[in-house]
Structures are given as C-alpha cells and as structure tokens.
Amino acid sequence: MKKILNALFLTLLAVFTFSSCSDVPAPYDILGEGDAPGVVGDGTKENPYNIEAAQQKQDGSIAWVQGYIVGAIENVYDDKGEFAGNKASFTAPFNITSNVLIAESPDETNESKCLPVKIKNGSDLANALNLKDHPDNKGGLLLIQGELSKGFGKAALINTTAAVFNNQPIGEEQGGEEDLDPNNPLGLDITVTPAVDFSNDFADVEHQKDYSKTGWINKAVKGTRIWQGAIYDPQKYLAASTYGIKEGETAEYWFVTPYFTVSADKKFTFKATVNKYSETMSLKVFFLQLKDGKMEQHEIPVNGIPTTGSYQWTDDLMVDLAAYAGQNGFVGFQYVALREKDVQTYGLDDIVYGEGSGTEPKPEPEPEPEPEPTPGANLLVNPGFEEWLEKLPTAWDNKYNTGEITKETTIKHGGNNSLRQKSDDGTQKIQQEVAVEGGKKYRISYWFLDNDPKARSRYWFALVDANNKTVNDLNSEIQQSSYSEDNPEWQQVKIEVTLPENVAKIRYEVRTYRGEDAKGTGGGYIYYDDMELVKIE
User: How many other CB atoms are found less than 10 A from the CB of residue 310?
Assistant: First the structure.
C-alpha cells in the first residue's frame, strides 16, 4: 500500500511540475541577439533556415541557412596512404578547405546535429571560411546560401555561392526570376552613347568563371548560372550549359552585346559550337530594343548554328541586321535548354561587328615570352586508347588494380575512343612504364573528364631507377595531393619536370577514386584520353 501511495504522489508531483513550467519559453525562444535563427525560418536571407529545418528540407531548392562553424568533414587514409573515407572533425588542426560543418551551438560535437556545407576550393567562400587556413573561424556565426541537397551521404548544403561572416558579405548571391524587371528583364541600358563597332574574342576569360565585360550583359532568366569562360586548349571562348541544373529543369541564359547603331555597310558575325545537342536546347539570336521602358525582342534567323558534332566550330555565322539599319539596339544570344541526362553546351567566340566583319583571318596571338620547345615523339604506346585487347587497351598493363575499364566510343577527347574507368571503394589505376633518360626534361600530360559526383581522379606518376627502385625526389610535383572536381568540360593535366640523373623509367599512372561522400558511393565514371609523355629537346 505504501508503494502505491508513493507512486501516486510522484505521478501527481510530475503533473504539477510540468504544468507549472508551461510558460517557460522553449530554447529557441530565448536566443539572444546574434544567435542562430529559430526552429523553422523560411530560407530567405532575412529569415534563414536553422540546422534542423535545412536537414529536413532537402529538395534541391536554393536557400539561406545559418549556424555556427564547429568543424569540417576530413578525409581519412589507410596505412598505405590510400583514401579510406570521411569523418567529422571538431578540433584543430584541420586539413581540408572544401567544406565546413555548422550547428545550432558553437560547442556542438554531435555529427548528427551538424550540417555539412560544401565550398568550392579556390572560391572566395573557401578562401574566407575554411578552417585549415583560418582555425579562428571555429565558433563563428555563418549565414550562407546554397542548394539544399545531399552531400557526404547525408543532408547538406552544396553549390554554395554567397555568405555573410563576421558581418562581411562574401561571394555573389544566387538570383531568380523574381529579381527580374518584367519590362526589362535583361537590364538594357540605352542612356549610354551607342557604339560604332565592337568585337570580343574572349581572350580575357577564366575557365569556368562567370564572365563579365564592361558594356556587355550576361544574365540568367531561368537557372542559377550564366555564361562562363571556357578554355579548350588553346582556344578561349564563352560557354553556356545545363551544368548545375537538375534533370527536367530549364536553363535560359542571355549574352548581350553593347548598345550600338546598326549601319547598312557593316556586318555582324560570330562563331559557335555545340556539345550533346538535343531538340530540347537552342541557341537563338535577337535584335533587342528598349522602347518606352519595355524590352522588345526580334528574332533573327541565323543559318548554320550547329546542331551536331562535339565542340566542332562553325565560323563566320552571319547576323542579318539590314532591317534595322539606322536604328539603335543590342544583339542578344539566348541559350535555352531542358536538362537531360547529359550536360548540353553551346559555345560562342569571335563576336565581331564592323567593316568587313568575318572576312579577315583572326590575327595570331602574341608569342609567350618563353615559347614552349618543339616536342619530340610521344613515348607512350597507344596513348589515345585506339587499340584494345579483350579487357584492356593495348600496352596498358594489368600489374595493378585496374577495376572495371571500358572502351568508350561516344564520350572522347580525340580519335575514335577514350578509356572509361569505374570508381569503387578501392583505388583503381591505369598504368604504363616507359624508359626515359635521366637528367633530361620531360612533359607529362593527359586529358580527363570528371562530371560524376560518384568518382574523382588524380595523377600519381612515379620515377624508377635501373634497379627498379622508386626515386622520390620529385614526388611533390608528379603525385597529386588533391582530387578532381566535377566539370562538364574535358580538362588537361600538364607537367614539365627535369628528371634526376639516376632515373631510368617513368611509371605513368592515373587513378580513379569513388566520390568524396561516405564509403560505398562508388559506381561513377572518369574518362581518360590523349595521354602524352614527351622528352623536350
């Protein structure tokens, strides 16, 4: 009986205690000034999501999230120095610059209560926020904009572009259709003096960087990217693609010339190229005018805009402006594409308006101060993977773990084939040993395509002496510490080194790894082509 009474007393005490505390504010209601936001938020800069809301709303939308920087997701390596996965780290020193962890509390060490935030290496965000270079950032309150999508195998914020940290804005905010003036969505400016002629060969572009030039307009109407610089060695040009757009969504990007007066005796020409064309994409040309504050667009059919091929340029495409002689306006290039499985790209180059436009050859670029020496023969056998045995390309041996390798005939940089290698939990390699001369200078290069989040790549060349022992003098130059990042374009690796005198062979080796997310995220692909090993005379 006594036990029953005690239990009843404790039950009544609990009821009284909880009811008497009903007016006590929840933890999120008592946050002080400058603390992280409340439970929900709406994803705007003024009312950002907190960690819990961001973890729940993983729908690919662009939003602002706020939290304290508490650590980073670091790479883990096994005893052999091979990549073995990721783990959360909350204490210095930190060794990575491509992400931070944020949480509701500056003292949080429970990974499940943290949100990984990816920041692109080399970007303004990475330079300002990473904990490797700025360990004092730990504990700071970060407001950051990005895409609410999975990363490192869990809820995350990726494709980040803008942030506010220590009251300092960083990067560029991602806009949207709601930011556009419906009467003048491209921001045409007719208050300036019309140009007489102009040209743009895009020699000032930076690869995969948003392009801007005084007098020219580069704007997204749909999607979060704009026209970017591209370098397809050695050509520099402007490119628009569906990279960063989810499958089934539409991109619409405009590139607009300076304001100018149309003259009957002048011509307008440009060059164009395409990759992965489909009927859901287009490159159209318009004559644009601003009348009574409202933009008018008049499509000008251009014969010959390419719809086939892979980065094959069509020169001297003519824009017929005769109907607008004596009028002022702009020429606008409109890229529209519905994202399909592949990334669809259009490129522009050599936009010229003037006398005899398009009739004279483009002048040769000025030579570099130290021109590259004339190369010798490529020492690699079957460098373009044109010849194949049953499972492997000829001369690329099976001494090491090659994993799943396939001859690829559609996605290629040159020739008829490329090599496609599938990522897995272990390191996959493709390798060839070549005799070389010690003390001589060599160029090592190759092309690769990494546009798959489930795969990464890096080079791992090695030097070998006459006794078949490795020579480690140049490891820091010929063995890559970082990994490739997703890119819709083919990229080139090029290294020049002078070999130590005792070197007899180069072990030419590139490697494929699974994505940077948690273990098990293999199954992606890297494409390799046009490998080269040349002694520079």
Answer: 15
How many CA atoms lie within 13 Å of 206's alpha carbon, on the beta-carbon side? 7
Whole-angstrom distance, CA of residue 156 vs CA of residue 298: 43
Identity at 48, one-letter amino acid code: P
Distance CA 375, CA 362 (A): 26
User: What are the b/e assignments for 369-399, b being 16+ CB within 10 Å?
Assistant: eeeeeeeeebbbeebbbeebeeebbeebeee
Question: Across-strand partners of 296?
Answer: 289
CA triplet 224, 229, 233: central angle to 5 degrees?
140
**What token pair was written down for 523?**
């199954």
Residue 472 CA to residue 185 CA, distance in Å, equals 58
Q: Which two tokens stand for residue 342?
A: 């592949």
* Residues in Cβ contact with 53 at an 8 Å cutoff, skipping those fewer than 6 apart: 39, 40, 41, 43
**Could you give the CA distance from residue 330 to residue 317 in angstroms, rounded to a whole number?**
17
Q: Provide, rounded to the nearest whole percent, the portion of the chain with pLDDT above 70.
A: 85
- Structural contact between residues 221 and 252, judged by C-beta atoms closer than 8 angstroms: yes
The answer to whether the peptide bond before residue 93 is cis (omega within 30 degrees of 0) is: yes
Which residue spans within 339-379 are E strands per DSSP? 345-354, 375-378
Residue with tokens 């990363």: 151
* Distance between CA atoms of residues 486 and 521, nearest Å: 15
CA gap 156, 146 in Å, rounded: 10
The neighbouring-strand residues paired with 492 are 447
3-state secondary structure of 161: strand
Start-to-end C-alpha separation, the chain: 102
Pairing of strands 62-77, 141-148: antiparallel
| Residues 6 or more apart in contact with residue 299 via CB below 8 angstroms | 284, 285, 286
**Residue 429: alpha-carbon gap to chain centroid:** 24
- Which value, in Å, is the radius of gyration of the alpha carbons in the chain? 28
β-pair partners for 317:
270
Q: Which two tokens stand for residue 13?
A: 């005490």
Q: Tell me how far CA of residue 257 lies from CA of 8, 189, 197, 406, 513, in angstroms.
A: 82, 11, 11, 44, 43
Stated pTM of the model: 0.42
What is the per-residue pLDDT across 343-402, written as a single tens digit (0 to 9) for each? 899 999 999 999 866 544 444 444 444 444 445 689 999 999 999 888 889 888 756 567
**How far apart (Å, rounded) are the C-alpha atoms in residues 279 and 94?**
48
User: Half-sphere exposure (CA, 13 Å, Cβ side) for 26?
Assistant: 3
Q: Is 322 helix (H, G, I), strand (E, B) or coil?
A: helix
Single out the residue of 135, 152, 139, 158 nearest to residue 54, CA to CA.
158
* Cα 167 off chain centre by: 27
For the residues of 399-413, what is the DSSP string, one character each? SS---SEEEESSS-S
Rounded CA separation 464/399 (Å): 16
Res 398: pLDDT: 58
The pLDDT score that the predictor gives to residue 249 is 84
Q: pLDDT at position 14, please?
A: 40
